[in-house]
Amino acid sequence: MDDISRPAGAVVRQLLLALGDPVIGLVAAPAGLDVEISDVVILDADDEPDSYRGDLVLIIGARGRRVHRLARAAAGQGAAAVALKTEHGEDLDELRRIAEDTGVVVLGVRPEVRWAQLDSLARGVVADARVMAPKAGRQADLFALAQTVAALTGGIVSIEDSANRVLAYSRSDDEVDELRRLSILGWQGPADYLALLREWGVFDRLRAGDDVVHIDERPERGIRRRLAIGIRVDEQLLGSIWVQEGREPLAAGAENALVGAARAAALQLVRRRTGASPDLEFEQSLFRRMLQGHIDARTFADNIGADPDEPAVVAAFTLDAGAAGGGAGGDAGRPAFEMRRATMASLISVHAAAYRRRSLVTTADSRVYMLLPGLPEQSGESLACGLAGEIVRAASQRLQLDVRAAVGSVVGGLHGIAQSRAEADQVLDIVLRGGGQRVAAIADVRSEVLLSEALALLERHPRLRDPRITALLAYEAEHESGLVPSVLAYLGTLGNVRAAARSLHVHPNTLRYRLKRAETVSGIDLGDPHQCLFSHLQLLLENGSTAVPPGK
Questions:
Q1: Is-contact 399 151, C-beta < 8 A?
Q2: Nearest CA to 402 among 481, 514, 324?
Q3: Are 146 and 157 in contact (CB under 8 A)?
Q4: Which among 84, 273, 440, 530 could bridge 59 via Cys, Cβ 3.0 to 4.6 Å?
């Protein structure tokens, strides 16, 4: 029975565009280049042909008449195309006769190409073709990434698969060149332009490594300056990211942004190919659970491919209070806030991936968390602060987002992630209340963190509170006497009456009277340093002068 459920694949034209002369060349295609290839199989010289309906058959280890016989036999078993090496001077006329007689496409493989390499590359092209109509959410992820890269580089971005089909591109009001225009209109690079890029060695350099490739401007061909980078997993090229320069020069950090974007795009393209459960979402979910202390470090490390004992640090990011308030003001503002937060998360992902390959980024409530593993314990906090500062500046300059960031302490292993996250949250709460700093670590605000923890302790344990302060607060609520503000100002200036009076805009004698009155009403002794310390803490908590982080 025919396998009617077999998935569609690539056409020969896509295979030739993706691999081209450096790997394969066309010998004959009697039915044209739109013959579909559903899979890639290997036929060894010692094997007998099987059923190959719609397959590309790689004939290995055969020479002379033997390879001709196997090509005819594979075609007779339904092969759509056969590929064979031509280093031994095979009669091309005979190969063309085979194509004409059987209708099979015949491809010649360059002598230096390894069969394993061709098998991997060809399978990648076929796999890409199977997902040309991806789920909307995944395609939206790529478009969001393209837009983020455009903002970071100041250029015009497109993301392509290994067959040079356009998967996503950035919106732009800038001037696009002919290559960009034709690629977007046709959702694929034009064949003549791709041939030029191949001739200039661009694709060879994209396959060769992780470096950014520079393509000079060619005004006579309508091609502007470009940067490109391959999207790779191990040795396999999954696709590429291209940045065209517009009216303005590309940003100074464009290359670094491309490196991070390529790493961020790799998992998305793997998900497109395999159709498997989304690895990235799974890792993000694990990271969220790890931040909450719900899974053990070994399980987390095994699933993300990390060393559980390597030092790590967590940084927390959020939009400023104005942006968050815009989203929280009602249903109409929520989508706009969600969009800004998603844009912020994409920006953080690109920077994090460029900085540490095994970095992770996830969103929880209104905050975005970044995990940086493998940092040195001594300088890791400083390095993380530097990266957070870069992200905050890029968000402001490139995306017009007002972002605040905080970095927790470097912990000695992944088991300490929840602790580092808790510290980052505490610091971020203080940054948001203070309004001055945009990025801080716990070393920058340690006294404020200690105060916050002391207030949180009092909030959780009402039995620790002094009833005399409670009585003073009740008196103030009933009589509006100004006693509580006076005591707070006095304690906040470490007992400096004149400074406290100036802050309240009253005469020092007036303040002294109020302090005596407060002692009489409540029974506290403002001459006792311990009572002063405890009174200050409780007044800060119960008077609402310093907000306590929720849930602490």
A1: yes
A2: 324
A3: yes
A4: 84
Give the model confidence (pLDDT) of 195-238 as tens digits. Answer: 888 889 998 898 888 889 999 988 888 788 999 999 887 677 88
Work out whether strand 312-319 and strand 213-215 pair parallel, antiparallel, or are unpaired: unpaired
How many angstroms separate the CA atoms of 134 and 455, rounded? 51
Phi/psi zone of residue 323: left (φ > 0), alpha (ψ -120 to 50 degrees), beta? alpha
Tokens 């470009």 locate to 226
Distance of CA 147 to the CA centre of its chain: 13
Q: What is the pLDDT of residues 416-471, one digit of tens each?
A: 999 999 999 989 988 888 767 899 998 888 777 777 777 777 778 888 888 888 88
Helix (H), strand (E) at residue 83: strand 81-85
R_g (Cα) of the chain, nearest Å? 33
78, 51 contact by CB (below 8 A): yes
pLDDT in tens, 264-307: 888 777 666 654 444 566 677 778 878 887 777 877 787 677 88
Residue 70's closest CA among 106, 33, 45?
Answer: 45
Residue 173 CB-density burial (10 A; 0-12 exposed, 13-18 middle, 19+ buried) = exposed
Tell me the sheet residues that pair with 405: 317, 439
Q: How far are the Cα atoms of 139, 378, 492, 512, 513 from residue 496, in angstroms, in the given order? A: 63, 40, 9, 11, 15
> Hey, which residues does 241 pair with through a beta bridge?
159, 229
Q: Other CB atoms closer than 10 Å to residue 51's CB: what's the count?
A: 10
- Report the alpha-carbon angle 133-137-142, nearest 5: 80
Q: Give residue-wise pLDDT tens across range 112-168.
A: 888 888 888 888 788 766 654 444 445 567 888 888 898 899 898 999 888 888 888
Kindly state the helix (H) or strand (E) to which residue 107 belongs, with its residue range: strand 105-109
